[in-house]
Amino acid sequence: MSMEQPSGAVAIAAAARLLEQGGLVAFPTETVYGLGADAENPAAVEQIYLAKGRPANHPLIVHLAPEADIDYWSDAVDESARRLIAAFWPGPLTLILSRASHIPDTAAGGQQSIGLRCPSHPVAQALLRDFKAGRGGIAAPSANRFGHVSPTLAQHVRDEFRDAPLLSCVLEGGQSAVGIESTILDLSRGTPVLLRPGHVDSLQIAEVLGVMPALPDAAAPRASGTLASHYAPRTPLVMVATDELAAILSNVQKAGRRVALMHHSGIENIGASSDAVAAIARAVMPGEPVGYAHDLYAALRRLDQCGADLILVETLPDSAPWQAVGDRLKRAAHGSADVLVRMLL
Ligand code: TXA
Ligand code: MG
User: For ligand 1, which residues put their CB under 6 angstroms from it?
Assistant: First the structure.
């Protein structure tokens, strides 16, 4: 756990000036840390794509101050958008809206639309209020290398970009309270479409809109967080049902492999022998989804660094509140199922 104090006014002002000059700044939000640049400066936004190793056609989220003029960014802010903003901003909800024509398309990855979000983290808000006197937008994806686990501590950002000369400024803001990326709702295509589940869930959105958001179809725009493989540790990760964990753990260990284990049920319910469990790196996760999300990425990073050949994760309940963490783990596990099969051959 980081003991750093959140960045103060002097550091925040320096970061705002750096952004105004076209530089990159990593900053805390309540979801995950972002890697920011001036959304209206295409050359600055290019630096984000370079630093992350992210394809240039993947749109970024533009972060706005609480007092920002939303109509400056979008030429079609309808009643649905206004109601959602009143209900959930500042907070972990990103809205995809039609992009105003004077906003450069670089941050939007060439889309006609634009992703907008007002974060609630006090350091992010102070930065947004200082940058261009509160009238700018900071384009920021999660501050990690493309496809890798998102950062929830400033130290994670420094670990990700250790050898990156482009990133000289990382603002400190402690552990991100939500811990997983914002919910993304597309309002630019008629019916509201949930592009990425998050802390603000579909039921809460439905309460405000009066309709459930639809799930993405083939016409949905490319979104990094919606790629089959994403949020992935370097160690293969496999999801295993609670009642199969003990047997698989013991078989993989017998095959001479080092296993890391992530579970939320009590160890007595998993039924693994205490010897087997003592021999491995373990993350004991909260048994409810909000706490689980908060701890998820730090736990994945820790297990990824312990030298294991495999990370076994207990499958999650199916219910709606677990949807967002379930989505992240499914993408982290993508392509790893055959690793387990090969280890057990
Ligand atoms: O919580 C978050 O949203 C964090 C923090 C830093 O705010 N940011 C984040 O950014 O997760 P990123 O780039 O990792 O994910 C942004 C997602 C991408 O999947 C992107 O494709 C989608 O938002 N997105 C942004 N603008 C879009 C647009 N105009 N149309 C469709 N998808 C869009
Ligand atoms: Mg990301």
Answer: 29, 31-32, 34, 58-61, 94, 96, 108, 111, 113-115, 117, 140-142, 181-182, 184, 195, 221, 223-226
